[in-house]
Amino acid sequence: MIGAVMNAVAEPVVSVGADAGVDAPRLREIPYNYTSFSDREIVIRLLGADEWTLLDELRGERRTGRSARMLFEVLGDIWVVERNPYLQDDLTDNPKRQALIVEALRHRIAEIEKRRQAQSGADPDRDAKVARLVASASRAIDRFEASFPETAALRKRTRRVLGRHTHRDNIAFDGLARVSHVTDATDWRVEYPFVVLYPDTEDEVRGLVEGCIELGLTIVPRGGGTGYTGGACPLTPRAAVINTEKLERLSGVERIAIPGRAEPVTTIDAGAGVVTRRVMEAAEREGLVFAVDPTSADASCIGGNVAMNAGGKKAVLWGTAVDNLLSWRMVTPDAEWIEVERQDHNLGKIHDAPVATFAVRRLARDGTSVISTETIRVPGARFRKEGLGKDVTDKFLEGLPGVQKEGCDGIITSARFVLHRMPPAVRTVCLEFFGQVRDSVPSIVEIKRYLDQGPAARSSRASSTSTSAT
Length: 470
Ligand SMILES: Cc1cc2nc3c(=O)[nH]c(=O)nc-3n(C[C@H](O)[C@H](O)[C@H](O)COP(=O)(O)OP(=O)(O)OC[C@H]3O[C@@H](n4cnc5c(N)ncnc54)[C@H](O)[C@@H]3O)c2cc1C
Description:
- The chain is α+β, with helices and mostly antiparallel strands.
- Helix content is 41%, strand content 15%.
- It has 15 helices and eleven strands.
- The model is unreliable at 1-22 and 466-470 (pLDDT under 50).
- It binds flavin-adenine dinucleotide.
- Flavin-adenine dinucleotide is lined by residues 184-185, 220-228, 231-232, 244, 272, 294-296, 300-301, 303-305, 307-308, 310-312, 406-407, 411-412.
């Protein structure tokens, strides 16, 4: 398989878009660059920014044809492996093939060097630039060659360290797992994850975080991968994506006593990996409403909903995730358990509450005994920007952990939400707006306020309007 796509030593491949003899500008000269990275970005990543400048200067002289093409072939071969985890798997399993590729790369660089030496003296400045590029490319090949044993060693260590906290099958390095976790709904692709972890239970998460810290891996939590901000996309080749899909414990509807309210309240408790739609259905079966209803509900997960403070159509009535959260558990980036509990839930939109109070409890390693408690009090209005469902510009939210943080301050492992009851009757209004969305939103808010006033207030307002009109 590899042999079919890699350049053979004896037969240099003509660059993508290259047309021998035609003096037309070529969009991409690095072969196999079917990625979203430009040639410039690839050269900078593999050789460095100064080398890109050098290469550009040499190409400006238009005397580099054959050598430049061979250099691009070297970069193309390295790049195609770096961007294809299936090729990496294949090479990792076949040391002989690895050696052949490295040999082919070195052969090309040796050819460039031979040509340089043959022409040296004619133009010392140009000669020095080519020598620098040859040296950089040789170092890139060294790194490429070293990457295989380094990766193998780190994989072995990772299996050993993380294997203490989860089943070995939950630690995945294979191409399919890595390709499936390189991006989210943004389709932004920067780095493939080093490893993908699939904890079986909430309890495993703390140990996995601790293990990743020991291994020097950057942790990226992931739910359904429907996020539109790129938050689940790894940005470093040493990233561990923690996929929460197996954390699918769902309590069913529970009426429980909650802090600050005399009467029990209907709630539901869900593992971070429960698909949002499942929670909505569980509530509906009891004639209740789970108000966190993003359009992506068939694929998004509860942890992702909390981390993004998601909301959908019902946000108009009951707000987004933050309004409906009663409590949640998470593991901080320093591998500590915390549990956050709202102390004064108003069973409505959080910005209608003068103050929202949260108890943040640090728990022992067992995830149950409380070590310390901190209280966060936030004026309800601070959670919203006037007229907006959620204020995406404010990630901090007065330091409230987990919510709207895109996974940056820890991994949510489960969350409990309040449930609502739909009014006994529903009427639908169909409105059509023309022009800009920004103009329609205030109208919707105004219509909603008007309807909220109730029939008596509406009829008195209508009669005063008609009086003033006459
Ligand atoms: C078609 C479509 C429609 C959408 N409609 C809406 C909508 O109506 N309303 C809305 O608000 N959004 C919407 N979204 C955006 C997206 O679905 C939501 O943000 C959703 O909450 C993301 O959940 P997820 O499980 O897919 O998260 P992911 O995409 O997996 O992750 C999103 C972010 O959350 C972090 N994260 C995931 N799980 C955890 C966890 N357990 N702990 C900590 N951090 C975590 C990730 O690291 C990442 O930063 C839509 C997206 C699509 C593709």
